[in-house]
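TA notes, week 10

Several of you asked for a full example with nothing omitted. So below is the full record: structure tokens for the whole chain, then the designed sequence directly under it. When grading your own attempts, check the secondary structure regions first.
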């Protein structure tokens, strides 16, 4: 059995995930409950309903989960008020033939399925007016506004952009992965993070392993980061080589854009966990291989560490 995550919050996620694995639970349950533990945390500003709002002041959440044994995967994106978007993604994975469900219909489904929803916020009238003005500017595509937004995004994507992700391998050797985020702070309304997109923020195939990402979601999407890592495992690369190669691909995207994007990736096979990061000092990753939960720092850019058999 194995579980892996990243960031300080990854320790909390792994405690919950390991509990599931130790009582013989399925990898996909361990991933869901591990992530849900962080979505619950009121001090968490980048995951769950206490996360940073978007540009018009609303908190919208993205999450996704994949069962590597069936290759079924589903993400939910831009959902408001859903306390556990990862559980909504899990339900969608089980009940629907789709891989991404977005916005209000997803929230309605959560309501019908009896998932916990926060009250509808009642903003003061002046806030409603301000929001309308901003929305008008955005939908009309005001060039000035969009260029101003792009500057905000560039700044926010350097500072406020974390995620929670979990990989789990259960007793039967099934491998699952998932991720959840409130997205980069002050994001464009409707912007979706990699955490909801299968192959970008998470991917799992029980034959080879799994990967989870955090950082600038656009880079994870443009490199198909999590899928790329698992594809590399399938070609015989080990997790550290796979993590490294994904980071090299991300560095290429950053170079092409002339931006200092950051990306962190954790890659696991059934026995080995490794991580690598781009432009991320002290990128922490967390893993459990049957004994204690260990925390390590992945070296920035091309460096990697490997643990396990
Ligand atoms: N990885 C989180 C985000 O792109 O918002």
């Amino acid at each position: 059995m194995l579980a892996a995550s990243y960031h300080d919050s990854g320790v909390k996620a792994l405690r919950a995930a390991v509990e599931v694995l130790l009582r013989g639970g399925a990898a996909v349950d361990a991933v869901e409950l591990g992530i849900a533990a962080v979505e619950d945390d009121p001090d968490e500003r980048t995951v769950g309903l206490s996360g940073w709002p978007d540009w018009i002041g609303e908190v919208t959440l993205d999450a996704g989960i994949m069962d590597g044994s069936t290759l079924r995967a589903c993400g939910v994106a831009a959902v408001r008020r859903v306390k556990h978007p990862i559980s909504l993604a899990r339900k969608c994975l089980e009940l629907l033939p789709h891989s991404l469900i977005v916005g209000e219909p997803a929230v309605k489904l959560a309501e019908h399925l009896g998932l916990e929803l926060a009250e509808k916020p009642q903003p003061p009238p002046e806030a409603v007016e301000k929001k309308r003005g901003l929305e008008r500017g955005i939908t009309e595509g005001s060039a000035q506004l969009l260029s101003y937004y792009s500057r905000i995004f560039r700044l926010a994507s350097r500072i406020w952009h974390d995620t929670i992700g979990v990989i789990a391998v259960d007793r039967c050797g099934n491998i699952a992965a998932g991720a959840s985020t409130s997205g980069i702070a002050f994001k464009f309304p409707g912007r979706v993070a990699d955490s909801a997109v299968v192959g970008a923020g998470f991917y799992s195939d029980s034959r080879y392993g799994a990967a989870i990402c955090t950082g600038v979601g656009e880079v994870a999407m443009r490199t198909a980061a999590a899928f790329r890592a698992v594809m590399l495992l399938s070609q015989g690369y080990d997790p550290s080589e796979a993590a490294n190669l994904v980071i090299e691909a991300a560095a290429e995207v950053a170079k092409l854009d002339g931006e200092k994007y950051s990306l962190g990736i954790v890659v696991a096979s059934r026995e080995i966990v490794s991580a690598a990061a781009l432009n991320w000092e002290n990128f922490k990753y967390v893993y459990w291989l049957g004994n204690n939960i260990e925390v390590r720092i992945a070296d920035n850019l091309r460096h990697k560490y490997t643990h396990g058999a």
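The first strand starts at residue 2 and ends at 6. Use that as a sanity check on your answer.
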